[in-house]
Amino acid sequence: MIRQSVVAGQFYPADKAQLTALIEKMVSKDVQKEDAIGLVSPHAGYIYSGPVTGAVLSHIKFKDTFIIMGPNHTGLGKPLSIMAYGSWETPLGEVEIDTEMARQILANSPHVQEDSRAHEREHSIELQIPFLQYFSQDFKIVPIVLGYATTEIYKELGDAIAQAIKTTKRKTVIIASSDMTHYEPQEQARQKDMMAIEAIIDLNADELARRVEKLNISMCGYAPTIALITAATKLGATRAELVKYQTSGDVTHDFSSVVGYAGMIVGKMSQLTKLAKNTVETYVLGGRIISPPDKLPPQMKEMAGVFVSIHKLGNLRGCIGTFEPTQPSVAEEIITNAISSATRDPRFPPITPDELKDLEYSVDVLSPPERVEGKDQLDPKKYGIIVESRGRRGLLLPDLEGVDSVEFQINICRQKAGIGLKDPITLYRFRVKRYK
């Protein structure tokens, strides 16, 4: 059975070349790829939600199978419907269903039923597939449409998915297809969405369900997200982070009635990031500086400059680092700079204990800076830069949202270091390894 695309020409171009060109504009290149367990990704028309889908998929390592769960907008089919065989067709080609994985989920769950009718006109799964095909042609999917059921049933589905992944030993990413608040004023929609996003960041499925009901958050894919959180935690997830958030109003500039879109990654925290997190929590709660782990992984043994960035619900909360190594190892550099980011960033007050649950961490390990002769050797997505003049130095990390030109990079560095616009400068570039 071939499930043919039903919203090509409506939600996205039906022409292969036009579709590829559109997606090309919405993805990020030269970004650090993460080993994701799962994603939250939106499913509106590509001109509205495509940049969010593109951003979140740009950050992940591709795997063998994508289990894609979407809400049932049509009312057709069984309450929890899975397609277990056949393929899905889009203008970019066909994608085969992972029948073994689908059969294993069916065997594990008393609630999921094999049924293609729920999938015939449903767009929430289809809209993920062309983006996946843009990045790779070597993967399979398991499509699952979720209608109305209880939170406990959605969580039981999550358990069944986690067990199926363990049984098949298939390298898998789980996608919860969901838009956020529908047709409310921009600021009101954003406030509601951040409450739901906060629960997802906490990997708290019950709290997400509670907030959706109590606050009347019209998040259409809350059921797939509850199943995702449950499955991901069973598979060892320890973190979720917001990659990108925007609304339809950011495109139309009509903020009176918008739909929200969030792109999120669920995964395991890297050892470097975990060290930064443990450092901050130990210091903020008890004033104690922890020691490096007894057995350091290779990436913590070397000497390098390190920046530790702390975000709170998607907003910067602290960022302090070193241009070049000041400690005997990256581990000690992380500990020193994590404390500074939490307590000594002059732009923010020190972090308090009640904020710890809302924080996200990233660690950037810098390569040795190299001098460049001109702007043509710089790239704001690929290289960080250091601008130096008469003993003053300003640094900016690469691949920062909103920093799209070399000139903007240089001007920010000038401002940070107090270097005048007419002062002569020397430019350096460096690469980073970003850990989250």
Number of separate structural domains: 3
CATH architecture of the largest domain: 3-Layer(aba) Sandwich
- Largest sheet descriptor: 9 strands, mixed
Structural class: alpha+beta
Query: What is the CATH class designation of the largest domain?
Result: Alpha Beta
**Amount of beta strand:** 25-35%
Verbal overview:
With 436 residues, this protein is an alpha+beta fold. The chain has three domains: 2-267, Protocatechuate 4,5-dioxygenase, Chain B; 269-366, Hypothetical protein ph0010, domain 1 (Glycoprotein, Type 4 Pilin, 2-Layer Sandwich); 369-436, Hypothetical protein ph0010, domain 2 (Dna Ligase, domain 1, 2-Layer Sandwich). The chain has 14 helices and 20 strands. The strands form four sheets. Strands 2, 3, 4, 7, 8, 9, 10, 11 and 12 form a nine-stranded mixed beta sheet that branches. A four-stranded antiparallel beta sheet has the order 14-13-15-20, covered by helices on one side.
Keywords:
436 residues; alpha+beta; Protocatechuate 4,5-dioxygenase, Chain B; Glycoprotein, Type 4 Pilin; Dna Ligase, domain 1; nine-stranded mixed sheet; four-stranded antiparallel sheet; 14 helices; 35% helix; globular
Question: Helix and strand layout, with pairings?
Answer:
Layout: E1 2-4, H1 16-26, E2 36-41, H2 46-58, E3 65-71, E4 80-82, E5 87-90, E6 93-96, H3 99-108, E7 113-114, H4 123-126, H5 129-135, E8 140-146, H6 151-168, E9 172-177, E10 182-184, H7 186-201, H8 205-214, H9 222-234, E11 239-247, H10 249-252, E12 258-267, H11 271-286, H12 298-301, E13 306-312, E14 315-321, H13 330-343, E15 359-366, E16 370-372, E17 384-389, E18 392-396, H14 406-417, E19 426-430, E20 432-435
Parallel strand pairs: 1-5, 2-9, 3-8, 3-9, 4-7
Antiparallel strand pairs: 2-12, 4-8, 5-6, 10-12, 11-12, 13-14, 13-15, 15-20, 16-19, 17-18, 17-19
Helix pairs in contact: 1-2, 3-6, 6-9, 7-8, 8-9, 11-13
